[in-house]
Amino acid sequence: MGLWTLACALAPGVAFGIAEASWRPRMERLVRSGSWPAALALLEEVRDAGGEVSSGGWSAALVACARARPASWEAAIAILARVPAPCAKCYTAAIRACSGRWQAALQLFSQMRAAGLPRGEHALTACLGSLAEAAMWEEAIELFRATPMTDDNGAPVEADVRTVNAVLMACARAGRPSEADSFYREHAAGGVSDSVTHYALVLARLRAGQHKRALHLVSSLRQRGLPLDPTAFLTLLRDADQRAAPHDALAAFSEMVAAGFTPKEEAMRLALGTAVAHPSAWRKAIRTLQALQPQGVGAGADDVADSDADRPEGSVEVATRPIEISISVRLGNTLMKRVLEASPVQWQSALALLGHMTATRQVRVCA
Predict the structure, then answer these.
(1) Which residues, including other chains, have CB under 8 Å from residue 355's CB and lie 6 or more apart?
(2) Alpha-carbon distance 299 to 49, whole Å?
(3) Contact at 8 Å (CB) between 96 and 63?
(4) Which string of DSSP letters, residue by residue, matches 24-42?
(5) What is the mean pLDDT of residues 134-145?
(6) Looking at the DSSP assignment, which residues form a beta bridge with residue 156?
(7) Is residue 196 scored above 60 in pLDDT?
(8) Distance from C-alpha of 246 to C-alpha of 240, rounded to nearest angstrom
(9) pTM of the predicted model, to two decimals?
């Protein structure tokens, strides 16, 4: 007896493949890949074969819309309109698909209320996330304050860190550090915070052009033992590189190492690339590079001693913790190229860099 015949015999009127347990694994794969057209086609197959699609099936197709790159918000709204009785999870998934389409997200959020559905923290966070993508900070704060904080069943709960972070990211992307700080003190300073929370505070300062304040904030957060992740430091490094501010780049790099992160090649390139060719920063760049090597490796510190004249006013000085890490030949070549292309050429920096690479056996330098 074949599988199809067996299924029909065991469950009259329900063909093999219609039971949700049989097509759920395929749907899960489609959801993970964001393949919403295939997910919708699968639901159509089930319905055409006489099966019923639960709200969970529709919700899965909507999640696929949200996970598509870019998210397919129009498809999500169209699919939601076909759901016989959409549940809160369906609406939440559709709102997540409206990434940056904050008007559509707010409209769906309002429809949940009109339908008598609980607008829990997941739906609220999704809507706030859409506002954050569009840097709509005023709307995000207003929505947060106007919406009672509940779980998905309508029971009162405290504000979740992801919900708080969504509002902070809206302020950050809009370059509103004062509003971000005020919201942080009101809702996150008491412990509802994580590395994303603090990244948002840093980003808000950078977007507002407050580069030194961003650096000092990171230093303060690190010294207070508050959570940070490499993204905050990389953002500082990219900002300094774009501004051709080598001392800020070296300060951010030192903070990154002091926080316990082992820098990867991108961080080292951003930190050292401009500094090694800069007349007032190359000594500190070489010293920073030496501090990342085992003791005794590379040129002596006395050869590249820093001077007070090399330190810009207001610069942040952080002792780089010694860790064993070698620069790659590719990075060494990039740094040497930066030095030789500078005008004027910082020959002392070139010689110190070449000596360091020779001592660490990174000698294939295109100089």
Answers:
(1) 298, 299, 303
(2) 75
(3) yes
(4) HHHHHHHHHHT-HHHHHHH
(5) 97
(6) 150
(7) yes
(8) 7
(9) 0.81
Structure tokens at 328: 């790659």
Q: Is residue 28 scored above 70 in pLDDT?
A: yes
Is residue 251 within 8 Å of 216, Cβ to Cβ? no
Amino acid in the structure at residue 221: L
3-state helix, strand, coil in the chain (%, to 5): 65, 0, 35
Q: Which residues contact 218 (CB under 8 A, 6 or more apart)?
A: 202, 228, 232, 233, 236, 252, 255
| Residue whose structure tokens are 């304050």 | 145
Name the DSSP letter for residue 187.
H
Radius of gyration of the chain (CA): 27
In the block, residue with structure tokens 């002091």: 258
Q: Please give the full DSSP string across 163-230, using - where no structure is assigned.
A: HHHHHHHHHHHTT-HHHHHHHHHHHTTTS---HHHHHHHHHHHHHTT-HHHHHHHHHHHHHTT----H
Q: Is the pLDDT of residue 6 over 60?
A: no
Question: What gap in Å lies between CA 339 and CA 282, rounded to an integer?
Answer: 9
Backbone angles phi, psi at 294, to 5 degrees: -60, 150
If you search the block for the tokens 């051709």, which residue do you land on?
A: 244
